[in-house]
Design brief:
This protein is mostly beta strands. Helix content is 12%, strand content 34%.
Amino acid sequence: MSSIATISKLLKLKLAKDALVSTDSNLEVRLKPKIENDAVQEVTLSPVVELSIDKGNVFHPGAELIIIVPSSRNEEEKLMKACIGEDNLFEEKCSVILDLTNEEYDSSGDINIIGSYNKFSPLCRVKTSSIGDANIFESSCSVQYQDSSIGNGNVVAPLVHITDIDKSNLLAHETVLYNIGEIIGGTHLVPKKRNHTNGIKQNKEEVRILLKIAGKTLKEHHNIMEESC
């Protein structure tokens, strides 16, 4: 099933000419109702976010991108304009959730929710308010940074789990988080970290190589969304 039908009511999508988005990926907007006087405000079904996906992005089948915004107060509010930079790789069954409910929004400009040259590996789960450039999230890692943003040039190794509880700004700049998936008593350990020297440069080079292969595979074997959605 094409995801276009799923997103059309709440999301206006603008794709760059050479952005490759599988029709079996899931691009979605979710509304978080505002509660005033113990009453949940009515949720609109008109578009609330205009998402621009820049050139070179690749979304594999099963990749998931969810944007969470406050429910609109009225029909006169302008679309929230969000954008994703160039050359990001969203692999199978990755889940990227951008929670914008606490973000200040100026209707005269765009919100840069994801930068460029990021890699979201299969089965990774990332929830945050924004993501910078050249970060690599390896398979089955989980990053729950709901009240924080993620910087540039970081690597989260496979099976690493990190949450807002670990308030030490671990993913600000060029850091590798790892713990080999260690679990004690059912609880994931706080990951170890080390500096990732020239992390932005190294991660960009890795993502560039992977995108060439991923883009070719997607065009040859899967259905691609049209530019206007």
